[in-house]
Amino acid sequence: MPAANMTYTSLVNDITVYVDRNDDPFLTQIPRFVAMAENRIASEVQNLGMQRVVTSTMTVGQPVIAKPARWRETISFNYGTGTTHNTRTTLFERTYEWVRAFASDPTVLGAPRYYADYQQEHFIVGLTPDYAYPYELVYRERLEPLSTENQTNWLTEYAPQLILAACMLEAQPFLKNMEMIAMWQSTYDRSAQALTKEDNSRVTDRSSIRK
């Protein structure tokens, strides 16, 4: 079983113990297995532990807004309006082309109504902001990658069984143990489903009326 308090170092050790290999060719590949496992989880598992909220302000006359580091998917995007800018106004997602057509002249300023992904690292809003509106972005992120310098993240603390199973799943093609893929896939799926069930329970709890 994975260590009770998992770290990157203990995860690497768990992997070597499970496959009973500690030769240099295999050890050299472990960081790649971990990175691929983290990418798999970020793409396939949607959990509250991977959600982040950032607040900032728009820039007057600038329709392009930088995304946070390791952004994967936007959940919601709103900004403050009204006299004190405490009224939350939702920005609606559209395609890049749609936003460009809606706000065809970026020099025309106004209150933004829509946003779109603008390449991997930016958003674009329309209209171009006429005020430094405070905004709140809720998004899913790829967790800070594990490494010898970054020993822990949300996965090692709250889902060690998931990251271990994902690493083992990624290692099987290198090991040429194709018959083990189904077993590790099943272990990974169970761990991912358990996290999803926990999240669904939280949503139910939040929506319940308490007397």
Describe this structure in words.
The chain is of the alpha+beta class and 211 residues long. It is built from 6 helices and 10 strands. The chain has helices at residues 8-19, 24-44, 96-102, 154-158, 160-175, 181-207; strands spanning 51-57, 64-66, 71-81, 87-90, 92-93, 109-110, 114-118, 122-126, 128-129, 134-141. The strands form 3 sheets. The chain has a 4-stranded antiparallel sheet with strand order 1-10-3-4, with no helix packed on it. A 4-stranded mixed sheet has the order 2-8-7-5. The protein has a two-stranded parallel sheet with strand order 6-9. Helix 1 (8-19) packs across helix 5 (160-175), helix 2 (24-44) crosses helix 5 (160-175) and helix 5 runs antiparallel to helix 6. The protein is elongated, with a radius of gyration of 22 Å. The two termini are 42 Å apart.
How far apart the termini lie comes to: 42 Å
Looking at the structure, what is the overall shape?
elongated
Number of helices: 6
Tally of DSSP β-strands: 10
SSE string: HHEEEEEHEEEEEHHH
Oligomer type = single chain
Uncertain residue ranges: 203-211
Number of self-contained structural domains: 2
Overall mean pLDDT score? 90
Biggest sheet details: 4 strands, antiparallel
Helix content: 40-55%
Strand content: 15-25%
Q: Strand order within the widest sheet? A: 1-10-3-4
Question: What is the radius of gyration computed over CA atoms, rounded to a whole number of angstroms?
Answer: 22 Å
Main structural class: alpha+beta
